[in-house]
């Protein structure tokens, strides 16, 4: 008989409340220690290290140096290996994701006349090269391929490469290749884990290095990104899945339990909480879970029970809706689903969530696959300062300024005063009589 973690928030002390906020990758010390030698081996040995780690860590006995990069023939073959209805589902999802990110994309440049004759604005240009990490350890994720590839393509990044762990036969999941090609990416490396981050950062004989890497991954991947942050931009912090289902008395607890299992089934390192101020909803959820588990595959039952019966998941009963809102904001979840017939009444009180899905007809499943907004989201309280992956993550912003001759004197005089006050003589000279002499020539 499994025992779901059930916490009454009012009965917890400060340490108990803090424990509820912890994620699996909060303490990376063990991973940082083990990842270091992997990164160094890739840096010094290149492809040979990638093949060795692929065989040792991913059990990909069929991986070879010649096969590290997916061939065009493998892409073509993938379309014959994936059922037509799945290909069409991927095509449908990519359509929504592309539409959303095209709307999100900024104008290439804007300028505003701040004072007569003085213009300033922003210019957006794509990052030259990016690596997209697509995990595989506990399943295959063409959805992650879509979510990372589409905004990069919309941003017009010239060099885009996907890194994903190989299967035991040394091949890449066929649906992932279908999603990559339909999204517009045809460079895929059969490399996963910490070694993928190292390859993207340093490059190898086969792998072309990138300036930035994005995409969710295990604590091994998160640790590698942290250690290599000085070599490659690690992007937003995207680790193991996490969610909060915020439910009020207007919904049945069985529905809340159904949605609680969505992110919990990703793996034992996930985090998933049902937060409610209704004891009836909490009790209905507890009663419904055994029936929901009976309808799941054994592996996903094992994963979700590890989460909901462990320290990083379960049910939190609060004293009021206000206390629920406060807990959500403290937790800053990756996914937040508001289960209520009046979700907008809760929305205004939520400030710290990477994704907010509202109402009983917007389960996380739809957002993860085909609604349109990006499902690569910051984890481990990253939502306090980060947002979802977006077109902006693949663009660099440059400030643009243009001062005309008539506007120059006023701005120069102000700048000169401030430069002299701060003690910068060259700054002052550049907007003083010395410049005037050159401008009059």
From TrEMBL:
UniProt KW keywords: Metal-binding, Oxidoreductase, Zinc
Pfam families referenced in this protein's UniProt entry, alphabetically: Histidinol_dh
Highest taxon listed in the record's lineage: Bacteria
CDD domains: Histidinol_dh
UniProt KW Metal-binding keyword: yes
InterPro entries noted in UniProt: Ald_DH/histidinol_DH, Histidinol_DH_CS, Histidinol_DH_monofunct, Hstdl_DH
Cofactor annotation: Zn(2+)
Family: Belongs to the histidinol dehydrogenase family.
Protein name: Histidinol dehydrogenase
